[in-house]
Structure to design on (372 residues):
């Protein structure tokens, strides 16, 4: 019999494990994959997430493996600036930086700190039932009873689907390729993330470490001509973009549809709570999905400092988190649509250039501020 079970060893489940460990609570994480080997891609940990990793004593480890990013620029396809957000001032104020890092490295740091004895791999949850406690059945035929359960099992969460019988997936009708490669970027791109907006397509890249560069490329689904090579879609972009795409090996590219989760009425039930993408998956346009999963874990930890009744904690947790998360999901969806316009781009870029950087910073600060 477990006191606490976490389903899913993604960034959300692993961060929660680290938080529960800080509280000296007994827990087991169940992960369907045979190893902690997330999709081969990079990820940006924004200042909100890095403040939490600082409290967990992991900030320096993550900074050392990743790459500090002081600004984010949106440009047109030829690197003509549309909008810039330089976060140096915010970094000083919050004593943390944005860090771009390989997902596998981040998950390794989080798992090592928990201790692998608390993570059961090859445990894919097949069913969950509430009797006096929760009965968890796994595809490998193992069965476990647990008093408290956290569903940290991602956007297609079985915990959510079986307990709450809800979860409508929204499809943004955009295809997203992500790639990793060894590449010498010119120095001016070393500590800044770039996103280039074209017509119905965009391309972003960031340096992850001494050698590694992570990129992503999106096109509107069904609207574009069918090219056989991804690079051909970006024929009208700066040569650097074409160079990065052409230099990436096919096996280092992954493709996904861009989806999110329509807001669900409640994230918790008796002794059970959803966190991260299972509760509130967002499109990636603000680079905040995982950061919000990390914030979820942090808030649960803060609430446990004053109350050991999990049901009270879960109720309070949802009250604290819902507004910020809904704001991010909705804003990210809108940004995703605007960034992929096929017509009127000149006007869009003109209007966006009128927005002062101070306004972008205000938005950034609203997001990186922790609720407690
Ligand atoms: C293209 C793209 C770019 C992104 N970039 C960023 C970014 O820069 N910054 C950012 O903060 N976020 C980003 N995100 C979002 C981020 O990837 C997610 O929000 C984050 O991974 C959610 O973490 P999670 O732990 O909640 O869920 P997941 O990462 O989905 O983890 C869920 C875990 O549960 C496991 N699992 C699933 N079902 C079961 C089961 N039945 N039994 C046991 N285990 C199970 C899975 O194997 C997985 O390990 C991006 C997303 C996309 C698509």
């Amino acid at each position: 019999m477990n006191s606490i079970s976490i389903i899913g060893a993604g960034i959300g489940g692993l961060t929660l494990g680290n938080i529960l460990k800080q509280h000296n609570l007994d827990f087991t994480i169940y992960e369907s994959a045979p190893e902690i080997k997330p999709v081969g891609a990079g990820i940006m940990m924004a200042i909100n997430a890095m403040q939490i990793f600082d409290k967990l004593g992991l900030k320096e480890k993550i900074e050392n493996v990743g790459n500090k990013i002081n600004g984010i620029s949106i440009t047109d396809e030829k690197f003509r600036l549309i909008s810039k957000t330089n976060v140096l001032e915010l970094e000083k104020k919050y004593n943390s930086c944005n860090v771009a890092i390989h997902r596998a490295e981040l998950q390794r740091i989080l798992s090592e700190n928990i201790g692998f004895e608390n993570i059961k791999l090859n445990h894919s949850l097949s069913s969950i039932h509430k009797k006096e406690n929760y009965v968890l059945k796994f595809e490998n035929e193992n069965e476990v009873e647990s008093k408290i359960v956290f569903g940290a099992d991602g956007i297609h969460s079985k915990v959510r689907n079986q307990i709450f019988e809800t979860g409508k997936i929204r499809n943004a009708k955009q295809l997203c390729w992500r790639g990793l490669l060894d590449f010498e970027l010119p120095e001016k791109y070393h500590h800044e993330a770039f996103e280039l907006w074209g017509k119905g397509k965009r391309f972003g890249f960031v340096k992850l470490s001494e050698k590694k560069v992570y990129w992503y490329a999106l096109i509107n689904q069904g609207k574009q001509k069918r090219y056989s090579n991804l690079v051909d879609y970006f024929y009208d972009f700066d040569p650097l973009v074409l160079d990065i795409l052409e230099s990436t090996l096919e096996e280092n590219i992954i493709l996904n549809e861009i989806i999110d989760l329509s807001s669900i009425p409640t994230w918790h039930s008796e002794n059970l709570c959803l966190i991260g993408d299972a509760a509130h998956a967002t499109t990636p346009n603000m680079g905040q999905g995982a950061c919000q999963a990390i914030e979820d874990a942090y808030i649960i930890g803060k609430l446990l400092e004053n109350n050991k009744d999990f049901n009270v904690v879960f109720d309070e947790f949802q009250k604290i988190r819902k507004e910020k998360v809904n704001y991010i999901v909705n804003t990210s969806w809108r940004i995703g649509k605007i960034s992929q316009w096929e017509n009127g781009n000149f006007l869009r870029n003109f209007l966006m250039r009128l927005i002062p950087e101070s306004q972008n910073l205000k938005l950034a600060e609203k997001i990186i501020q922790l609720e407690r």
User: Anything to note?
Assistant: Residues 7-13, 30-33, 43-44, 123-125, 152-154, 158, 176, 178, 216, 256, 276-278, 284, 287-291, 293 surround flavin-adenine dinucleotide (CB under 6 Å).
